[in-house]
Write a structure and sequence with these properties.
- Strands 5-4-1-6-7 form a five-stranded parallel beta sheet, with helices on both faces. Strands 2-3 form a two-stranded antiparallel ribbon.
- The N and C termini lie far apart (54 Å).
- The radius of gyration is 20 Å and the shape is globular.
- It contains six helices and seven strands, in the order αβββαβαβαβαβα.
- The relative contact order is 0.15.
- Helix content is 57%, strand content 15%.
Length: 208
C-alpha cells in the first residue's frame, strides 16, 4: 500500500515539478525581455512605485527607485513625478509622503510632484496614479521600479490601457535572486487574478 502511494505521488509530483520549472523559466525569460526594453524615453510623467520606508526615510531599495526618477527628471525625460504608495502596517508615514520629501530635498520642485498615498499594491499604484494623470491631462508615463518588478507592472499597465513605458534600476541594497523568485510567485498570483478574477468582476459589473 505504501509503495503504491509513493508511486502515485511520483506520478503526480513529477509532472507538477516539471510544469513549475517551465513556468518559472518562462517568467524569468519574460523579465529579462522587459528589462532589455526598459530604456528611458520622453513622457509626460514618471510613476515611482512605492516600497518600504524606515520611519520618515525611504528604505535603501526605495531610494534607488527615487534616484532613478530624479535622474529622469534631471535629464528632462519627464517634467512631473507621481510618487505612489500608502501607509504600510505599523508605519506612521505613507510611502508617497516619504518619497515626496526625498525628491524635494534633491531639488525637484514640490509643484512637479503628485502624491498618491492610498495604494497598497502594484495594481493600485498604477490605477490610482492613472486617475491623477487623467485629472492633470497627462497621457504618457514612465513606470519606475526595480528591474525584476517591471514585467508585472507593465502587464498591469496594459490591462489598465495606460500608455506607459518601463524604466528600471539595478540594486546594491537587496539580494536580487531572492526578489526575482519572490516576484515569480507574485506574477503567478497576478496571472490568476488577471485570468479569473478580473473577468468575473467585469461580468458582475455588466449584469448590474
Amino acid at each position: 500500500m505504501l509503495l503504491f502511494l509513493k508511486k502515485g505521488m511520483l506520478r503526480v509530483g513529477v509532472p507538477i515539478f516539471v510544469l513549475a520549472i517551465l513556468w518559472f523559466s518562462f517568467i524569468f525569460y519574460r523579465m529579462a525581455q522587459v528589462e532589455r526594453s526598459a530604456v528611458p524615453q520622453p513622457a509626460d510623467v514618471a510613476i515611482v512605485l512605492g516600497a518600504a520606508v524606515h520611519g520618515d526615510q525611504p528604505s535603501p531599495a526605495l531610494a534607488e527607485r527615487l534616484e532613478k526618477a530624479f535622474e529622469l527628471y534631471q535629464q528632462k525625460y519627464i517634467k512631473s513625478i507621481i510618487v505612489s504608495g500608502g501607509i504600510g502596517k505599523g508605519k506612521e508615514h505613507s510611502e508617497a509622503d516619504v518619497m515626496s520629501t526625498y525628491l524635494i530635498k534633491k531639488g525637484v520642485p514640490a509643484s512637479s510632484i503628485y502624491l498618491e498615498s492610498k495604494a497598497v499594491n502594484t495594481l493600485e499604484n498604477l490605477s490610482f496614479s492613472q486617475k491623477i494623470m487623467q485629472e492633470n491631462g497627462y497621457h504618457t508615463a514612465l513606470i519606475v521600479s526595480h528591474n525584476y518588478h517591471l514585467m508585472r507592472a507593465m502587464e498591469m499597465a496594459n490591462v489598465l490601457a495606460m500608455d506607459a513605458h518601463p524604466v528600471g534600476t539595478d540594486s546594491a541594497s537587496i539580494y536580487i535572486p531572492y526578489y526575482r523568485v519572490k516576484e515569480g510567485f507574485a506574477y503567478t498570483k497576478w496571472t490568476y487574478h488577471k485570468l479569473l478574477v478580473l473577468p468575473a468582476q467585469e461580468k458582475a459589473k455588466g449584469n448590474k
